């Protein structure tokens, strides 16, 4: 019997250490920069999730929740990257849903990211909307996207 299965039923999502995210951050997001460039100053304080296909890490995302009077329960995700061979198969959707649930569990009331404009329609699927003018990191256009949780 041939068993047909899809990626959506056969990858798993689990927490990873910050260092595990660096190769995919670099390869997918900033291949022309140095490997150091993809590190975030407060990576040690973040929650990092990875999607695994068998034992291979194929997608990463990093969540940071800010507390305190200035930022009550504002969560931000950064450095969201799916390996090129695995894009368009539902893995990014699963990871973002996972991080939204985790942000809520941690008490966040809103979620934001600096979104590359070529991923804007992807974020709109999750109820996120632009809340800034377009700005640039190098040559890449971005806007801040946000939603309540
Ligand atoms: C953007 C990204 C994280 C999305 O992850 P993914 O696993 O490829 O996305 P999914 O397969 O879950 O996509 C879900 C749906 O959104 C669509 N989609 C995916 N990427 C999209 C994009 N950049 N723009 C518009 N729609 C997109 C898919 O076609 C799919 O549509 P369908 O359900 O009609 O088939 C991933 O493609 C990626 O890493 N891209 C390169 C790096 C990047 O842009 N990261 C985000 C930086 S802000």
Task: Describe this structure as you would to a colleague.
This protein is α+β, with helices and mostly antiparallel strands. It has one domain (3-148): Aminopeptidase (3-Layer(aba) Sandwich), CATH 3.40.630. It has three helices and eight strands. A hairpin with a 2-residue loop joins strand 7 (135-137) and strand 8 (140-148). The longest helix has 15 residues, at 91-105. It is globular, with a radius of gyration of 16 Å. 25% of the residues are buried. The model is unreliable at 1-5 (pLDDT under 50). Bound molecules: coenzyme A (COA). Residues 28-29, 80-82, 87-93, 115-116, 118-119, 121-122, 125 line the site of coenzyme A.
List the helices and strands and how they pair.
Elements: E1 11-15, H1 18-29, E2 47-53, E3 56-66, E4 74-82, H2 91-105, E5 110-116, H3 120-124, E6 129-130, E7 135-137, E8 140-148
Parallel strand pairs: 4-5
Antiparallel strand pairs: 1-2, 2-3, 3-4, 5-8, 6-8, 7-8
Bound molecules: coenzyme A.
The site of coenzyme A has 19 residues, from helix 1, strand 4, helix 2, strand 5 and helix 3.
């Amino acid at each position: 019997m041939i068993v047909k299965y899809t990626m959506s039923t056969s990858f798993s999502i689990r927490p990873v250490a910050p260092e595990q995210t660096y190769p995919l951050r670099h390869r997918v997001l900033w291949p022309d920069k140095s490997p150091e460039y993809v590190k975030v100053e407060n990576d040690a304080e973040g929650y990092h999730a990875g999607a695994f296909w068998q034992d291979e890490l194929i997608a990463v995302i990093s969540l940071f929740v800010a507390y305190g009077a200035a930022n009550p329960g504002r969560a931000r995700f950064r450095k969201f990257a799916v390996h090129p061979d695995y894009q368009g198969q539902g893995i990014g959707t699963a990871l973002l849903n996972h991080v939204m649930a985790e942000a809520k569990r941690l008490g966040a009331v809103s979620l934001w990211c600096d979104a590359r404009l070529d991923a804007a329609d992807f974020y709109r699927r999750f109820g996120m909307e632009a809340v800034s003018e377009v700005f640039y990191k190098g040559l890449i256009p971005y806007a801040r996207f946000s939603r309540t949780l």
